């Protein structure tokens, strides 16, 4: 993310518990801990861009007030993931007393599932030894990558992707404050493309707003480098109609026009299979082929050759 995008995203980061969207029960419970000034070790698990880091920062601000920066330490484990980080940086901060009335500090470990196993073992002992002076908040995408002893020491909150109504409310807030005119179809496109990720949503919105104040579906797809669903469906329908060469040429044009990688377009194809006018058995066969082709791509196979192979499977299903 470039600095301008980061500042724009920060502008719309909530500063109060009531502003966090889509995580009502989690917010309610964390707010109760904060009000009692009795915070256990916490683990926030879930997909990217749904409010995990934001909730940790809001909790710190509400607990410590103006002193929150002195009592809150944030590490991104993707950058510093080794055992020395836990033994030196984390331990040094954890062993000192907090400033103010709250009897503990907070260490926030973002992307904690990127910590090495040795670092997690060291963290386990640190959490145990410095409970009186420090609380830990761990954020991760996959809680299964965190060792069991750490999980058992934390209250685990599982975040979900933002619902459509939450995404739409964020879009409308940004549109109102930035004086943008966003079409209904553009809102639908933003919801589909963001897949519940608020960060991605705001970055696409900022890129679109830099070009025009009237944001349309075409602008959104252009900024996100995503082909329109109807264009993908046209390719698949051509292949099903045994017009393989036409389908192949149109797919190549789409990839060149939108700058799409094969791994991106395969996910769009998989979604559009469900909308095709074929029987359920054929849909299952085609989705299975998508999985096989995606695996080949991730293993290093040529993208366009693999996409041609996938289109040939559509043509075979169409013939049958």
Describe the 3D structure.
With 320 residues, the protein is of the alpha/beta class. The chain folds into 3 domains: 23-158, P-loop containing nucleotide triphosphate hydrolases (Rossmann fold, 3-Layer(aba) Sandwich), CATH 3.40.50.300; 164-224, Orthogonal Bundle (Helicase, Ruva Protein, domain 3); 229-319, Up-down Bundle (Zinc Finger, Delta Prime, domain 3). Helix content is 60%, strand content 9%. It has helices at 3-11, 24-35, 52-64, 68-71, 83-94, 117-129, 148-153, 164-178, 184-194, 198-211, 217-224, 229-240, 244-258, 262-273, 280-298, 303-319, and strands spanning 42-45, 72-76, 105-110, 134-140, 155-158, 181-182, 214-215. It has a 5-stranded parallel β-sheet, sandwiched between helices. A two-stranded parallel sheet has the order 6-7. Helix 8 (164-178) packs across helix 9. The longest helix is centred in the last third of the chain and has 19 residues, at 280-298. It is elongated. The mean pLDDT is 85.
